Predict the 3D structure of the following.
Amino acid sequence: MSSQNLKKTDMIFGLCHTTDVEHLLPGGVCKTNEEKFVVLEEVIKKDPQDIIDDIIESGLKGRGGAGFPTGLKWKFASLSPEKEKYVICNADEGEPGTFKDRDILLKVPAKVFAGMTMCGYCINAKKGYLYLRGEYKFMLPELRKVLDSFHEVIKKIGYDFHIDILLGSGAYVCGEETALMESMEGHRGEARNKPPYPTVEGFRNKPTVINNVETFVNVTMIQKFGVAEFKKLGTQDSRGSKVFSVSGDTPKPGVYELELGMKLSDFVDEYGDGDTKAVQVGGASGFCVPRKKFNETIIGFEGIPTGGSMMLFNSSRSMYNVLTNYLEFFAEESCGQCTPCRVGCQQLIRGIRAVKCGQKSPDYLDALLKLTASMKLTAKCGLGQSVANSFSSIVSNFTEEMIY
Amino acid sequence: MKEMINLKIDDINVSVEAGTTILEAAKKANVRIPTLCYHPDLCIAGNCRICMVEVEGSLTLTAACAMPVSENMVIHTNSLKVRTARKHNIELLLSEHNSECTKCYKNGNCELQDLAAEYKITNETFIDLVPFHNYTIDHYSPAIIKDDSKCIRCQRCVRTCEELQSVSALGVAYKGEHMKISTFMEKSMFDVVCTNCGQCVNRCPVGALVEKNYIDQVWDAIYDPSKHVVLQTAPAVRIALGEDLGYDPGEIVTGKMVAAIKKLGIDSVLDTDFTADLTIMEEGTELLTRLKKALVDKDSSVALPMMTSCSPGWIKFIEHQFPQLLPNLSTCKSPQQMFGALAKTYYAQKRNIDPADIVSVSVMPCTAKKFEADRPEMRSSGYKDVDYVLTTRELAVMIKQAGIDFESLKEEKYDSIMGQSTGAAVIFGATGGVMEAALRTAYELVTGREVPFDGLNITPVRGMEGVKEASVKIEGTLPEWKFLEGAILNTAIAHGLVNAKKVMELVDSGKANYHFIEIMACPGGCLGGGGQPIPTNMEIRMKRNKAIYQEDAGMPIRKSHENPEIALIYKEFLEKPLGHTSHKLLHTTYIDRTK
């Protein structure tokens, strides 16, 4: 079954499906398709403000999931007169069901480094960091090799920017931007109070832009093809394409680049196994969409946004088990500092277990739903706030499975 | 002047300086927002999520303690959303908290209990999580008990230990549901770098960190007719005890306190002030001796600057963190331990009591004193010099238990002997006090004249600045101190171990030119001690500080060497400062704890 409406794109992985950085040089040639790719040198001749305006105009939103407008973020950081600023690439890809950054870093790392360098140029930062998920340590030798030649390239074009790679240690919460910075500074990975936001006080309390891996690649591609070309993809609210990690009950799990703003039903037509009962959009912290809502659900910022994770479940799956699994994950991966997240997650998991085994009446699910509403309102960071997403969407759409 | 921000809190217009938090602005508008992890002495954590308020235009609720105000903000502190969420968070905290309130030492003085009462949390909404965790109670330390089942993870203790004390004995371990406040390798508080200062105990909102109390042991001693119970009270107790008995901070309750203790059935109520004066005699002489050795004998082995040794939290700190500077410590015991050693020797002889029958109790603003009394060195009388150490809080509990109407008590005087005090001794309770007392005596000893400060008030060493410095030029010396003529004595005073560390780093690097340094482990000195009434914060410390100097100013004798009982004890018992008996009873040694 293949959907006619689903538009596959080739923005992120296309053009230069290689780790070779030579193509970033003037006259450089991409080995795979022989197309010239000289974007970085052109970019650093432009006015930084123009580049930022371009990105704002493109409508690019952060690809990590939260969807903050990338251009605005850069603008805020560029406004600071502070001399010391940082660019961080968040490659702590920890969301269950997400593995697209791994593919991007394996296949087109130079585009990521180029995007980071452009960001550094725009906000006047001389230093960038790639915060790499601890489990991706295996990539390190290859990434370092690419990075070395990348540094050669920017040296040749006479620009000063240095990127370091730091390894995470396996905590999910370190994907949260301020917890990530705490971790980089050698502290416990715990979210900070916001404000101040990272663009004002980030890494080492200096203005910092932190973006997802895919966001930086998008920036590179916008500079390469121009804003108009980028805006041809996607919808009003969700410009561009998105890399999806498809997993679960699907005949073709993997990483796919699709245009944003698609209907979930089209997606299921393409990747489902014919018996799809629900799709978890956006990983454990995302929303669960039941079959009856496939048709009305748009994947994008106007509908359900996602950091890329698409998990399909067929009718053989118990949604109770799925939810228990997510909650166990959250109870384990909460940093534990704030009350609603630390204690709330424990209550949710013990609560649905108590309902399932009859220790608590089914009404207790309502009490738990109210609790998740408070967690969403009061948790300190995105982790605790988003536990409510999967909990409320699974419990309200599959209530019978929770009770019986 | 700072830019002013206008905002609206619960329909009240407020104008505050830029940078003010919503919590502070609300206080200004007389709107009370409940808090738990917030403490005015500490950095903002924003982790309990109790102070949540609704800011119009924001999708989520906002932690009032952590959010700075902005122009035209409209805030609701009591909306349905706020109330529901706040109640949820209180219920969540209660579900992971061992809520056996009636069996808790902090029953009646617990911020979580207060919140539960305020929100009338009567039925258990959520599942009790305590049985699912394997909580332990650490009671190996003689000073502090740590009960993880009561901890609500507000991290006040962690911030206290790091920010105020730079000890970091307590830290956060694990994550998620297993997250807990722990020590290095989860060892007992007794086995780590903890200084027993008790600042964490003073700031713990619940009963997770409390002092090890000796109330029952002291009652037993009182009721035992074969025992003679002597009790000493530290300088800083008299200006803070009232807070636990219905008085405002800063009330001096010396006379009523003595009367109350007598009513408890204590045989002899004596004053640590007496040994504070004795400390000045011994320590002052020690300083002058060291200076003489260095200046006249050119003995390069003399350790200078000399540092005070009254604060047992400070002693354990230096033993752990700067053992190379231990020779710089004065060998004088703290006033508590001098008192203990004399109670079972000098006092016993004078009163003709078998020291074996004496139970020596002290009331201290301090938890580290409990540890100090347990040190093996502190048995120079042949017995345990101080048997039980009570905090100011424990004494207040005993007074309440005895049904004493504190306010209506007639003021009484300390018993004799070892009950005489001076203004110099009283100010031991404030930061800078030991220095001031020492200067009052040493200067006069060397020159025959009073210190050249108006009314004996050496103001440069007073106040709440973290590190203070003062220099005194010595002029017109008596013949035997000729070598000090024209010398400038440089002193430094630090309180709070974070400040002590700064000074020690300076000394260790050889950059300091001090001769004498006073260090107190607790912020504000003993008046802000870990055993003082809860709450303690800057505002309260300032009031207690004022009271201490008020007490000093009102004393008929304000110099240690003029204390008649001091003259008497040297005549009858000790002979002279640093003499043989002094050396045996009043001086001690230290341990390098890095080994």
